[in-house]
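Box 3.1 — From sequence to structure: Autophagy-related protein 9
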Amino acid sequence: MAEQGEKNREYQEYQRLEDCEEDSPPGEDEEELLLHVTEGPTGSRGLLNHSLHIYHFHQRNGFACVLLSDVLELVQFLFVVTFSTFLLCCVDYDVLFATRPLNQSHVPERAKVTLPDAVLPASQCARRLRGTGWLLFLLVLAGMVWLCRLVTALRRLVGYWEIRSFYIRALGIPADELCNHSWQSVQARLLALQRRQPLCVPRRELTELDIHHRILRFRNYTVAMVNKSLLPVRFHLPLLGPVVFLTRGLQFNLELLLFWGPAGLFQNTWSLRPQVK
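Predicted structure (token representation):
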């Protein structure tokens, strides 16, 4: 009984925040969080719903850096796949490691073996590639992954282009001056814009804490669940006692199950499912 009472007291430490949009009754979330602006430079956008993207746009130093980063990631993926295929199919390692001698009529005896000596002709390389079924399957799979990443990057760039226009037209921050503005400065302009031309219709005035809650929402939920021992990250091992185990892979899977997957806690980017409430 004492243990149960202590647990109840622990759960009472987390008090419900008044006027918190994620705990509002079903059906009211969209009306409160969607942007209801039909005129002006901001267009149709929900400030709270897009605050995370606005923050990431600032942290990634603008559209040019985002574009360059995505292009280099796609090129890097292609390079890794192409170079790995070249090393598997187009290099004669017997010649490279001198386990088989070169043609002595063309290369003097005891000559130093160089990489061009071990590279196979293009026709022989293509034959070895066609004769390896599992490698062709992996290449097709890699091509599909690259296309998915390309589509994702294009969609992300379209969204960041809209946010770039939002920075320029609504916040008055040119693209070449973004690096001179701290996040606190951008946040102050967001709040000033909300007071001057409401971007959303909350029950109370928008504050810095609202934006921080929006940006750190999933992370705050994760931290709270770890603090309340709702996530399996603490284990009791023999002779070692309590051990905390949370790898990046385990964290990714937990976030996929709780937040991003079809059976997650949220029915959209801001509203909890009624059964979870």
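Summary of the box: Strands lie at 234-237, 241-244.
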